[in-house]
Amino acid sequence: MQLLTPRLLLRPWIDSDRPPFAAMSGDADVMEYLRPLASRDASDAWIDFQTSHQSSHGFCMWAVESRASGIFMGAVGLLRIGFVARFTPAVEVGWRLARPFWGQGFAMEAARASLRFGFEEVRLAEVVAHASIRNVRSRRLMAKLGMRHDNAEDFDHPRIPEDNPLRRQVLYRLTRDAWVSQCS
User: Fold this and answer.
1) What is the pLDDT of residues 23-70, one digit of tens each?
2) What is the DSSP-derived secondary structure letter of residue 118?
3) What is the count of structural domains for the chain?
4) How many C-beta neighbours within 10 Å does residue 53 have?
5) Pfam families this protein is in (predicted)?
6) pLDDT band with cut points at 50, 70 and 90 for residue 1
7) Residue in 69, 127, 78, 58 with CA at minimum distance from that of residue 98
């Protein structure tokens, strides 16, 4: 399974993705608003989980590479949320790109391809996204994707400790109908 955009290839994970993903996961700027992957083993386990999720559900946070150079850039895709909250069960769209690829529209391009797949191929009724309330860059991207935020739906992430500043999360939603309307 692969998704193509003008500049990107979203594809299944391969073993050669492990070192650059681990390096990206060790970058404090990349991980500023994400739960840490503190070791190479944790990074590899994250990739293994994505591979398993792809096998079970037909989608995951795919590896992203440049079509022009073949360079690994990060991970973008869809994921069934694995914790209990008032908005679950749900499928989320998410992204994490290595720092050299920030600010060039790659996350937007890959996230739009992921949403298109989710709405048009999987026929999802809705996709959500969540991020730390402090993560202004991701919140801006969610809005650009046409996702809607309601302050009343912000929540405390159950897998983040109470004293952690990342615990408070914003929730954005996009329905298939809204997706179709914005693509028309």
Assistant:
1) 999 999 998 898 888 899 999 999 999 999 999 999 999 999 999 999
2) I
3) 1
4) 18
5) Acetyltransf_3
6) confident
7) 69
